[in-house]
Amino acid sequence: MMATFHGGSRRPVIGVTASRRGGRWMWAFNRLALRIAGAKARRITATDDERVFDDVDGLLLGGGDDIGAELYGGELTLDVRLDPERDELERRALDVAFERQLPVLGVCRGAQMINIHCGGTLHQEIREVFAQAPYMRTILPKKWVEVEDNSRLLDLLGRKRIKVNSLHHQAIDRPGTDLRIVARDEHGIVQGIERAADPLLVGVQWHPEFLFYAQSQSELLKALVAQARRCMENRGGECAA
After folding, report:
1. Which of 103, 128, 203, 232 could form an SS bridge with 227, CB 3.0 to 4.6 Å?
2. Parallel, antiparallel, or unpaired for β 104-107 and 201-204?
């Protein structure tokens, strides 16, 4: 039976990009968090047909494998797991989203992919650049992040300082065209980016799906769903914010 929302209308469909080789916990939490926020999640991997994007109303670029350094003019120097097919999938997904003006939330790797797709670069290993930053790998909110004034991210989260989780060793270096860095942690590592011209284009370096119980993180996911609902209701037209 199709899930309903708001007077019997269907829930907006959020396409969630994921690895073919794992990430089941991330997918499970994304599906739960998006359901709570009012959407239906659809897992999308590199094995799916191109038509999988036809009826999505928004995108969540998920976390997972590292991104190939050749995409941002870098040189691979670390022994890391890559997924070139997923890289290509998410580049196509962003092309579709920009063409159709779909809302996009990038999570961890997803934020980095947004940045690369817009012409930005990454730090391959944050410990080599931010030597003073302690190594942190946890789904629990243990890292302080400060959000910039006059940013959409601040409007969405409703708080200037928040505690988030951390599962990354890559990070955004130079922001892509028209992207604004809107959040950093206490050591200066980029934690949030956005582009004002889009209905919603926001990337966060943490994983809000693991923090769906926190009001600030649930508001971030609800904003993605609300904008996706506008796209659903205006299918064929612009998804105005």
Report:
1. 103
2. parallel
Distance CA 35, CA 26 (A): 14
CB 34 within 8 A of CB 223: no
Number of other CB atoms surrounding residue 236 within 10 Å: 5
Question: What distances in angstroms separate CA 196 from CA 37, 122, 154, one per listed residue?
Answer: 23, 21, 13
pLDDT-based confidence at 241, cuts 50/70/90? Answer: low
Q: What is the pLDDT of residues 141-167, one digit of tens each?
A: 999 999 999 999 999 999 999 999 999
The closest of 98, 143, 146, 141 to 118, measured between CA atoms, is 98
Predicted pLDDT of residue 136 = 87
CA–CA separation, 91 vs 21, rounded Å?
19
Q: What is the pTM of this model?
A: 0.90
Model confidence pLDDT, tens digit, residues 214-237 = 999 999 999 999 999 998 888 655
Neighbours of 8 (CB within 10 A): 7
**Rg over CA atoms, the chain:** 17
d(CA 179, CA 168): 20
- CA angle 15-63-70, nearest 5°? 105
Residues 168 and 230: their CA atoms lie apart, in Å, by 32
- At 60-94, the pLDDT tens digits run 999 987 776 667 665 554 444 567 889 999 999 99
Strand 171-172 relative to strand 122-123: parallel, antiparallel, unpaired? antiparallel
